[in-house]
Specification:
Layout lengths: L1 H89 L1 H7 L1 H5 L4 H20 L2 H16 L3 H125 L10 H96 L6 H43 L1
Helix pairs in contact: 1-7, 4-5, 4-8, 5-6, 6-7, 6-8
Length: 430
C-alpha cells in the first residue's frame, strides 16, 4: 500500500511538473511576443506623435491662411460691390464724357478688338462671379485709355491677360498639390484609425477572455479550498473516532485477556486438583467436572470474543489507514491544483493588467489620430467650394482668357498687315 501510494504521488507530481513546464514555456513565448509588440507599438507611437505635432502645426497654419484669404476675399467683394453701387449712382455722366472716344473711335479693327476683348473678360467675370477677372477688365480699360498706340495697347492688354492666366495656373497647381496632400493624409489617417481600432478590439477581446478565465480559475480554487476544508474536517472526525475506538479496544481487550487468563488459571488449578489420586477425602468428581466444563465454555467464549474484538480492531485499523492514505492523496492533488490554478490566475491577472495598459496606450494613440483626423477633415473637407468646383471654375476662366487673348492676337496680325500695305503705298506715291 505504501509503494502504491508513493507511485501515485510520483505519477501526479510528474503530471503536475509536465503541466507546469508547458505553462512556463507558453508564458515565456507569450511574454516574448508581448514585449516585441510593445517595442514596435512604442516606436510607432513615438513616430506618430512626432508626425502628429508637425502635421498639426502645418494644418493650423493652413487653416489660418485659408481663413485670412476667405476673409480678405469677402472684404474685397464687399468693397467692389460698394464701389460699383457708388459709381452707378454718381459717375454716369462723367463716364459718358470720358469714354465717348471709345464709341466714337470704333471704326478701326484694333479698337473693335480691344473693346471685344475687354467686354469678353468683363462678361466672363460676371458669369464666373470672379473679383479677379472684374479687376482685370478694369485694368484692361485703363490700359486702353492711357495707351499711345495700337501696338503698345495690344502688348499691355495681352500682358495683363497672360499674367492672369499664369496666376490661375499657379493657383490650380497649388490647389492640386493641396488636394494630393489631403487625399494622402486622409487615406493614411483613416488606415491608422482603422488599425488602432482593430488593435483595441483585439486587446479588449483578449482582456475579456483572460478576465473570464481568471474568474473561472478563482472559482475553482474556492471550490477546491472548500473541498479541502471538508476533507480536513472528515479526517479530523475519523481520527477522533479511531482514537475512541482504539481506547475502547485497549480497555476491553485488556479486560477480556485478563478474564481469559483467570479462567485458564482456574481451570489449571481444578484440573491439577482433580487429577490427583491421593486425595484424603472423597471429592465430588461429578460436580467438579461440571464446574470444569462450565469454565471451559467460558474460556472458549472469552477466547472467541477476544479474537473477534482483535479482528474488528485490525479491520478498523486497516480501513482507517486506507482511508487516511486516500485522503492524503486527494489532499495533495487538490492542494497542487489550488497552487497551480492560483498561480495561473495570478499570471492571467498580470497579463490582463499589461493588456489593459497596452489598450490604454493604443487608445491614447487613437485619440491623437482622431484629433488629427478632425483637423485634416476641417482643412480638406470643410471648404466653401469643393475641389472639383474650383477646377471647373478655374478651367472656364483660363479658357475664356485664352479666347480673349486669341481675339487680340488675331487682330494684331491684321493690323501689322495693314501697316505694311500702307507703308508700301507711301513709298510708291513718293
Amino acid at each position: 500500500m505504501l509503494a502504491q501510494t508513493l507511485k501515485d504521488e510520483i505519477k501526479f507530481a510528474t503530471k503536475d511538473l509536465n503541466k507546469a513546464k508547458g505553462n512556463l514555456a507558453s508564458s515565456a513565448e507569450a511574454q516574448a511576443t508581448a514585449e516585441g509588440d510593445l517595442s514596435v507599438t512604442t516606436k510607432d507611437l513615438d513616430e506618430d506623435v512626432k508626425g502628429l505635432a508637425a502635421l498639426h502645426q502645418e494644418c493650423m497654419t493652413g487653416a489660418e491662411d485659408f481663413e485670412t484669404e476667405t476673409k480678405s476675399r469677402g472684404e474685397e467683394l464687399k468693397a467692389l460691390a460698394t464701389a460699383k453701387k457708388i459709381i452707378q449712382e454718381t459717375a454716369g455722366g462723367a463716364a459718358s464724357q470720358s469714354y465717348d472716344f471709345l464709341q466714337m473711335g470704333m471704326s478701326s479693327g484694333a479698337d473693335l478688338a480691344k473693346f471685344e476683348a475687354m467686354r469678353f473678360v468683363n462678361d466672363l467675370a460676371q458669369k464666373q462671379k470672379s473679383p479677379m477677372l472684374a479687376q482685370l477688365a478694369t485694368r484692361m480699360a485703363a490700359a486702353i485709355r492711357t495707351s499711345s498706340g495700337a501696338g503698345d495697347v495690344f502688348a499691355k492688354v495681352k500682358g495683363l491677360i497672360s499674367d492672369m492666366i499664369e496666376k490661375l495656373l499657379a493657383e490650380a497647381e497649388a490647389d492640386a498639390t493641396e488636394k494630393a496632400y489631403c487625399d494622402k493624409e486622409m487615406a493614411e489617417t483613416e488606415t491608422k484609425k482603422a488599425d488602432k481600432e482593430a488593435a483595441i478590439e483585439k486587446l479588449s477581446t483578449s482582456i475579456d477572455s483572460m478576465t473570464a478565465n481568471s474568474g473561472k480559475l478563482k472559482a475553482e480554487v474556492a471550490t477546491l479550498q472548500k473541498e479541502l476544508a471538508s476533507l480536513a474536517k472528515a479526517q479530523a472526525e475519523m481520527d477522533k473516532l479511531r482514537a475512541e475506538e482504539k481506547a475502547a479496544f485497549d480497555t476491553n481487550s485488556a479486560e477480556m485477556a485478563k478474564g481469559l487468563k483467570g479462567i485458564q488459571l482456574a481451570l489449571k488449578v481444578l484440573n491439577d486438583y482433580y487429577a490427583k489420586d491421593d486425595k484424603s477425602h472423597s471429592s465430588a468428581d461429578g460436580a467438579g467436572s461440571g464446574i470444569v466444563g462450565l469454565l471451559e465454555v467460558c474460556e472458549s467464549d472469552f477466547s472467541k470474543g477476544l479474537a473477534e474484538m482483535t479482528a474488528a480492531e485490525e479491520t478498523a485499523v486497516n480501513e482507517y489507514d486506507k482511508t487516511s492514505k486516500e485522503n492524503e492523496i486527494v489532499k495533495a492533488t487538490k492542494e497542487q491544483d489550488v497552487k497551480y490554478k492560483t498561480k495561473e490566475a495570478k499570471g492571467l491577472d498580470k497579463d490582463t493588467a499589461e493588456a489593459t495598459a497596452d489598450r490604454s496606450g493604443v487608445q491614447t494613440e487613437l485619440d491623437a489620430v482622431n484629433e488629427y483626423y478632425s483637423g485634416i477633415k476641417a482643412r480638406c473637407i470643410a471648404k466653401p467650394e469643393s475641389y472639383a468646383e474650383r477646377v471647373k471654375r478655374r478651367t472656364a476662366e483660363i479658357a475664356g482668357l485664352k479666347e480673349a487673348l486669341s481675339i487680340l492676337d488675331g487682330e494684331a496680325v491684321l493690323l501689322q498687315k495693314s501697316v505694311r500695305h500702307a507703308l508700301r503705298g507711301v513709298r510708291a506715291h513718293a
